[in-house]
Amino acid sequence: MFKITADALRFDEAIEWFRARLPITDDEFDILSAEARQRAWTIAGVEQLDVVQSVWSEIDKANTAGTPFEDFKKSIEPLLTEEWGQRNSPRVETIFRNATQASLNRGRYAQMTDPEVVRFRPFWMYDAVRDARTTTLCAGLDKTVLPQDLPFWDTHIPPLHHRCRAGIRSLRKSEAEKRGISRVAPAIEPDPGFGHAPGKGEWKPVDRKYAEGIRRASKLRKERNSKPAGSIVEGKHFKKFSSRGVTPAEQSKILEAARKARLVDFLEKRPLSELFLAPRVSDEYGVLGAYWPALQRLGVRTKLPPGSLGQVFEPGKSFAVSLAGTDKVDSMRRTFVHELGHHVHRTSEQADKIIQAAFFNVKSPITEYAGVNRAEYFAESFAAYTFHRGALRKHDPVGYRMVREVLTLQGIPL
After folding, report:
1. 357-369 tens-digit pLDDT
2. What is the pLDDT of residue 306?
């Protein structure tokens, strides 16, 4: 039985194995073959590379410094909650357990396959944790003792399923005989995607399509790590600016949402004529933001009416993305991105055709407000793409594809 938290002094091999996995998005991961996926690392439902990279870095920290799950959760859960559109603590734990346990067992594999170790300890034993949570799969394999060079071990290196806690123990011949060498390998297969031994069925760059996918993701990661996105500023991204009702620190956080939405370069090419933050932006009650396409003028309300934030985001049920803001600033950031969505699509006739076709075919918009008309459908979908991307992709794939088509058309990074 091995502990989940890694020990940097004992498991350098585990650290090396994990660091050889390239953080990659779902879209890049999808084009890889099964072999290539052995050398990539992703999170289902997460489309932003910087989020995948952040989680990867925290797993690396757990492997090297022994970071406990509680610290990992505190650091990562807010990021994943924003990406998924809802809190899912069990899933966060599954990500942590799977990654650290895989690293641990691959590190152990590297140690146990050292020629000197094999010479003295030529048998391996599957060692499951036996308690109320033990799966039928692991219980059936527990205490299986076989020579380490059998093909069985090519596909049965833990973890063999989500949250698998099993390990492999190397044995001297005398120890193996005492425990009882299995006559045949059990006919029990791991869950899909689990169990591969390092180097067995792993990536070899022979297929141009998936090798190119790895290269693109690697290049994008290096670019994002070496070139931090700039801030939006008056005179460059908007010609006129005014602010009332927020502090300078709050103002900076609100404007930073444009960077989160990957719109810094777009706004430099197509700046707003005016951006203002004010206690009121419209005579209509309850309006949180407004965009005037003819003037390319955008306003965000700073004095929020009751019920304008703190609501749980429920795809297809929530009224608007802005209402899921955790506080005043977060709500304003979401409104800002929503209104920027109007600026994105109103500057292209082709974009409007894409949006119209999507709105005609959508089955269930991401929010109630997204169903008002095609303009709001895009703006709400764009806000969800920025703050709840995984939820948008799962709930409204039509809207998800629409946003990506429009962004590609406008030269905005996905």
Report:
1. 999 999 999 999 9
2. 85
pLDDT of residue 219: 52
Q: Tokens 């690293």 map to which residue?
A: 103
- Cβ-proximal residues to 223 (8 Å cutoff; 6+ apart), any chain: none
Q: Per-residue confidence at 200, pLDDT binned at 50, 70, 90?
A: low
CB atoms within 10 A of CB 279: 11
Neighbours of 74 (CB within 10 A): 11
List the structure tokens of 271.
Answer: 């700046």
pLDDT at 2: 35
Q: Minimal CA–CA distance to 52: which of 95, 4, 108?
A: 95
What pLDDT does residue 35 have?
64
Q: Which of 381, 414, 383, 411 is nearest to 398 (CA)?
A: 381
Which domains does the chain carry? 12-179 (no CATH), 232-409 (3.40.390)
